[in-house]
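User: Predict the structure for this protein chain, please.
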Amino acid sequence: MRIVGGEFGGRRFNPPARIPARPTTELAKEALFNMLANSIDLDGIRALDLFGGTGSISYEFASHGAAHITTVERDPTSVDFIKKTAEALHIQDRLQIIRGDVFKYLKQCTDKFDLIFADPPYALANMDEVPQLVFGQQLLQPGGLFIMEHTTSNDYRQHPHFQRMKNYGMTIFTFFHQPTA
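Assistant: Here is the predicted structure, written as structure tokens:
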């Protein structure tokens, strides 16, 4: 696993093989952060990383200057790896790790974020609830962005906050936008 850009660009980490995660590919992650760099200023944002897995996206947020990142992951091995990597990067003061169920977290969360990223397991039966909860709980700041990684099995073009989709082979990023007013 490699951080693709920003302050920590090029740093490599080796997650334990027993982490039950499918990390975003480096190619897709690099394309995603290139798109973000050309559309929003990541410096100083509050970001939420749902289904954190190895923490790869959280490290990119930190590397690109996010002031605060919340990562939600339920697997204890993954949480331990994210903590150790955050310490190695000296970002533990900017990274809040929540070990728990994403759906329970979303239902009780009262924080607001500038950017939310979700990479649920592709076979997750209730994946379509994620955008409903993000917007139903009003978790985005006005003008905020929600990005969900998924496969062609899911289509969110009819969602009222849909902005665009980007396809990278089997990986699709759907962008949703919270209006400013």
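The helical segments are 26-37, 56-63, 76-89, 102-108, 129-136.
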